[in-house]
């Protein structure tokens, strides 16, 4: 079988994990306040404008914002302007496979879900949660900078939606194996510092300590027991991780590059779920036409 070839170009420098996307902090701040609170803040700001400028002018900012948003929506929907929500989308049917492999899901995989939540009235504005958030940043940055030491692949951030506000903040981190995770947990100083802070500062706080929560779940998946499919999707989950690969330059010198695992899954063995776990040749009758 041919070697799986990434649909995205490899890079000479390791890309930062999706965890560091610029909008994460804004989303956490937005989640800290309820919709009525945001509306009240907007009404307060509008009332303030009415006190300092004529009423006719005070409504202009809101009017201009809504008008430009509507015009932009119309232009994008009519393909006059580019739809930036499509930026980074991998068009077609793709699956995440280990770069350089020839058999689907040929290596084991480990994922750990790390999460934190504030039940304190101050929510994410409490110093404890600000400190915890900083530790998350430091730990993922350390993994990014030392990925080969820990067999680390990448990390993404997610926000729970089961509550109106103060939802769970989750980070999903991927490793090649449990040994890499274990090494990080027990040797990385940044992790040990974060754990000491939780035990000595948060848990021993008699007032606020019980109002903060952290958790993790570790999922160790053997080879040929995991699969993925993405249709017209931006890189996410395993599809947003990064693998080191050895390539040869034109002068024959070997060098390390960083490859994304997304490969074409529109046909062949990767076209079905069983095929993507090396449990079939991808030729079983699904009862419907596959994506082409």
Rounded to the nearest angstrom, the distance between the terminal CA atoms is 21 Å
Count all strands and give the number. 9
How does the helix and strand content classify structurally? alpha+beta
Strand order of the largest sheet: 3-4-2-5
Tally of helical runs: 9
Unreliable sequence segments = none
List the helices and strands in order: HHHHEEHHEEHHEEEEEH
Protein name: ABM domain-containing protein
Organism: Sporothrix stenoceras
How would you describe what is shown here?
It is a single chain. A hairpin with a 5-residue loop joins strand 7 and strand 8 (254-259). The chain has helices at residues 24-32, 35-52, 55-58, 60-77, 127-145, 147-150, 178-187, 189-202, 273-276, and strands at 90-96, 109-118, 152-159, 169-175, 212-221, 230-233, 243-248, 254-259, 262-264. The chain is α+β, with helices and mostly antiparallel strands and 292 residues long. The longest helix has 19 residues, at 127-145. It is globular. Among the domains are: 18-29 and 108-221, Alpha-Beta Plaits (2-Layer Sandwich), CATH 3.30.70.100; 30-84, no CATH class.
SSE inventory with pairings:
Elements lengths: L23 H9 L2 H18 L2 H4 L1 H18 L12 E7 L12 E10 L8 H19 L1 H4 L1 E8 L9 E7 L2 H10 L1 H14 L9 E10 L8 E4 L9 E6 L5 E6 L2 E3 L8 H4 L16
Antiparallel strand pairs: 1-6, 1-9, 2-4, 2-5, 3-4, 7-8
Helix pairs in contact: 5-8
Protein name: ABM domain-containing protein
InterPro entries: Monooxy_af470
Pfam family, one: Monooxy_af470-like
Short description:
Helix content is 34%, strand content 21%.
């Amino acid at each position: 079988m041919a070697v799986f070839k990434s649909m995205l170009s490899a890079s000479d420098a390791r890309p930062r994990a999706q965890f560091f996307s610029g909008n994460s902090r804004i989303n956490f701040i937005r989640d800290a306040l309820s919709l009525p609170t945001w509306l009240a803040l907007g009404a307060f700001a509008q009332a303030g404008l009415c006190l300092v400028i004529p009423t006719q002018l005070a409504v202009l900012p809101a009017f201009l914002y809504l008008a430009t948003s509507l015009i932009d929506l119309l232009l994008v929907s009519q393909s006059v302007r580019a739809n930036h929500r499509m930026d980074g989308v991998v068009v077609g049917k793709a699956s995440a496979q280990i770069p350089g492999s020839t058999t689907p899901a040929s290596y084991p995989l480990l994922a750990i879900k790390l999460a934190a939540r504030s039940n304190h009235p101050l929510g994410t504005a409490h110093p404890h949660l600000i400190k915890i958030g900083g530790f998350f940043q430091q730990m993922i940055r350390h993994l990014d900078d030392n990925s080969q030491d820990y067999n680390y692949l990448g990390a993404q951030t997610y926000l729970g939606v089961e509550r109106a506000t103060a939802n769970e903040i989750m980070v999903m981190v991927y490793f090649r194996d449990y040994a890499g995770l274990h090494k990080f947990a027990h040797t990385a100083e940044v992790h040990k510092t974060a754990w000491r802070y939780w035990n000595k500062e948060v848990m021993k706080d008699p007032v606020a300590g019980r109002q903060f929560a952290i958790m993790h779940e570790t999922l160790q998946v053997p080879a040929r027991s995991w699969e993925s499919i993405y249709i017209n999707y931006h890189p996410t989950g395993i599809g947003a991780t990064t693998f080191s690969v050895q390539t040869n330059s034109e002068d024959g010198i070997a060098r390390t590059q960083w490859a994304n695992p997304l490969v074409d899954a529109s046909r062949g063995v990767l076209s079905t779920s069983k095929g993507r776990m090396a449990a079939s040749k991808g030729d079983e009758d699904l009862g419907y036409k596959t994506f082409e």
